[in-house]
Amino acid sequence: SAGRPEVAAAMRRREVGGGGASPGKPERCEGDGAHTLYRSSESDHGTDTASCSEHGQSPSQLSMSGSGGDPQCESNSNKRSRQDKGTPLERFDRKHLSVTDLSRQAWCEQQVVYGLELPHIQQLRDDAPVVKAGSSIHLARELEIQDIVPINIESREDSWAVKLINFLSMIQFLQAGERVRELPVFGEVEGILLVGVIDELCYSSSGELELRELKTRAQPTFPSAAQRKSHHLQVSVYKLLFEALVKGQLKKDTIVQHLQLQTERSFGSEVMLHAKRMGLFVNTFGELLDLIFLNLTYIEIPTIDVLKIEYCYQADASVIGTEVVRFEEKRVVKELKHYCSFWKGQREAQGVDIEEAWKCRSCDFADICQWRERKAEEAVARNRANHRK
Question: Cα separation of 336 and 190, whole Å?
C-alpha cells in the first residue's frame, strides 16, 4: 500500500515432479536460524525461552518428554568426531554469527555449543509453542507499518540481496523521519561478521532516535537479572553495528570475504524484479553492494540516542514494562572480545558459574553436560578437603 515500506521475505524454491519449481519454506541463512515464519534472519525473535527456568520445564523438555532415542544423535556424534580440529567457526561451518548467538552465550556458552552439536534438540526449542507465540506477536507489530512480500530465491547471493534491499529501503524511510521495524544490520567485530535484526527504530517527540527491542514473556513478570544481562548485550551490539554502518566503517570487501559470495553472479528473476520495483537497477550482488555503500556515503542518519526493551505478556500481548538500557561501550567491547575469543578458538567453551547453577534445571543438555559434571566433581573435592582440615 502507498506510504508503507515493502519488506521482502526470502523463500527458498524446492524442486517438484517434472523439474518444475514451487515456493518452498522461508529460506534460512547459515548461522541465522528461523527469525519468523516469513523471513530469513535472526533466531528466536525476542522470546524469553530461558524464562521457563524460573517456572518449571523448558519448552523443549516439554516437547521431548517420552520421545525416546533419536537417530540424529548418532549421526551428529560421528560428525562431531570428524570436526574436532579447527576453530568453532570452522567446526560448525559458520561464515558469520548472529547477535542472538552472542546473547545466548551470555546466558550459557556451553548450552550454545551443545545446541550446535545437537541441532535436532535446538530445533525442538525453536519450534516450542512459547517461541511461536512470541514470533506471532512480533509479526503482528511488523504488519502494522509495513507489508511483507514473498520472494523466491535461487542462491545465497539472492538471499543476501534480499537483506540488503530491505536495509536500503528502510534507511530511506528512516531518513524521512518514519518508524521502521525488522531492520537488518551487519558488521565486523573482532574479525567476525555479525548479523542481526533490530526490532524497531523510531524518533521520539524530542527528535531522539530510539532503538526499541520487544521481548515476549510466558509469565507476566520481568525477567531475572541474568536474562536482562543478555538482553542488554543484544541491544548494545545492535547500536554498535548500526552506527558502524551509517558511519561508513564497514567495507564491501569485508562482506565478500566473510560470506564467500560471487559478486559477479546474476540475481534470480524474482530478486531482480523486486530490486527494480524498489527503484534499484542492479543485476549482480557486486552491483548491489556498490550501490549500498554509495548510499551509506551520503545518507544523514543520526546515531542511536536511547535503547529500550519492552517486555510483553504473551497471553494477551499486554505490556509488562519498559526498561531503558544504559549503553556502556567499553564494557560491551570487552564482552564481545571475550565471547568472540571462543569462536576463534582462543579458549574453550565455559558453562555457568556455581552461583548460576539454577539455570541447569531447565537445560535440555544438563544430563550430558561435561562442564556441569566437572563443576560437581570440583565441589565434592573441595568439601572433602575442608573436612580433612
Answer: 8
Contacts of 80 (CB under 8 A, 6+ apart): 117
All three cell numbers of 243: 552506527
Residue 96 CB: number of other CB atoms within 10 A? Answer: 19
What confidence tier does 128 reach under pLDDT thresholds 50, 70, 90? confident
Give strand pairing partners of 216.
Answer: 47, 312
All three cell numbers of 113, joined, read: 555449543
280 three-state secondary structure: coil
Helix (H, G, I), strand (E, B) or coil at 40: strand
**Phi, psi for residue 86 in degrees, rounded to 5:** 95, 170
In a 10 Å sphere around its CB, with 0-12 CB exposed, 13-18 middle and 19+ buried, how is residue 291 labelled?
A: middle
- Cα separation, 152 vs 149, in Å, equals 10
Contact assessment for residue 359 and residue 365, using Cβ atoms and an 8 Å cutoff: no
Q: How far apart are CA 313 and CA 320, in angstroms?
A: 6
CA dist list (Å): 132 to 3, 59, 109, 144, 215: 29, 11, 24, 19, 13
Q: By C-alpha distance, which of 361, 307, 103, 322 is closest to 222?
A: 322
Pick from 288, 33, 14, 32: nearest CA to 161 = 288
| pTM of the predicted structure, to 2 decimals | 0.80
Contact residues for 53 (Cβ-Cβ < 8 A; gap 6+): 358, 359, 361, 362, 363
Q: What stretch of H or E contains 105? A: helix 99-107
Query: If we measure between CA atoms, which residue out of 169, 164, 193, 190 comes closest to residue 181?
Result: 169
Please state, as a whole number, how many other Cβ atoms lie within 10 Å of the Cβ of residue 372: 18
E strand map for the chain: 6-15, 21-26, 97-98, 147-153, 180-189, 192-203, 209-217, 306-313, 319-325
Q: What whole-number distance in Å separates Cα of residue 172 and Cα of residue 6? A: 12
Q: Any idea of the CA torsion for 270, 271, 277, 279, to the nearest 10 degrees?
A: -160
State the amino acid at position 181 in one-letter form: R
pLDDT for 19-29, tens place per residue? 333 333 333 33
Tell me the per-residue pLDDT of 62-93, one tens digit each, with 9 for 90 and over.
333 333 444 444 444 444 444 556 999 999 99
Whether the Cβ atoms of residue 226 and residue 244 lie closer than 8 Å to each other? no
Q: Can you tell me the distance from the alpha carbon of 206 to that of 76, in angstroms, rounded to the nearest whole number?
A: 53
Distance separating alpha carbons of residues 99 and 42, to the nearest angstrom: 8
